[in-house]
Amino acid sequence: MKLTFKEDNSQFWEDIYLEDDAGWDLGGPTPIFESMADSMSPGELCIIGCGKGYDAIMFAQKGFDVTAVDFASSAINALEELANENDVNIQIVQKDIFSLTPEHINTFDYIIEQTCFCAINPSRRKGYEQLVRKILKPGGKLIGLWFPLDKHPDEEGPPFGTTLKEVKSLFDNGWKIVKEEFPDLSIEPRKGREKLIIFKKN
Ligand SMILES: C[S@@+](CC[C@H](N)C(=O)[O-])C[C@H]1O[C@@H](n2cnc3c(N)ncnc32)[C@H](O)[C@@H]1O
What we know:
By secondary structure, the chain is an alpha/beta fold. It has 2 domains: 8-16 and 41-99, Rossmann fold, CATH 3.40.50.150; 108-202, Rossmann fold (3-Layer(aba) Sandwich), CATH 3.40.50. The chain has helices spanning 10-18, 31-37, 54-61, 73-86, 125-135, 164-170; strands at 44-48, 65-70, 91-94, 108-114, 136-146, 175-181, 195-201. The protein has a 7-stranded mixed beta sheet with strand order 3-2-1-4-5-7-6. α5 links the parallel β4 (108-114) and β5. The structure holds S-adenosylmethionine (SAM). S-adenosylmethionine binds next to β2. S-adenosylmethionine (SAM) binds next to β2.
């Protein structure tokens, strides 16, 4: 594939991890996802752009069949180590999320989105919608923390900003919103800047 944008290149992300500059890394599971997990029926769950994968561990410990995808070696190595330490079984996949098809078509009950959408170039967002639509099963849910809502999509990134209007218009065909809220459990620096929206694939 021809690389067009700097952030399409795994080395761009790898360098950030190597420089210990991964400001997005929470160092543990995401509070809102952790609180939701107990009321979700376990199933096939995919975390795209999973980073070091604390949520992958958390969902696996709660009985989900987790596939965690990232293309940066440091993220994958950290997740492998964490999975071994916690003795959990996770499908850890080091590849570009845009190459999850055709292998994973109609595979997942859930996709977890956290700061992956804002990591890819805005011009690829329709491709992102098509990707998640293809890899979810019919009736599957895209559980996303859509972020950052206080930055204009045209500003330099990553992270690339978005708006609720943009997110909803991307998912306006073949999807239904089943939940939408500004979570009380957002971490302090993201309060009001991220919104939980769960889209269900028809
Ligand atoms: C901002 S970080 C977020 C990581 C994680 N979701 C978290 O919240 O800690 C974005 C992650 O997505 C990964 N990533 C970006 N574009 C990707 C792509 N096209 N395919 C696979 N991984 C990608 C990067 O390597 C990085 O680990």
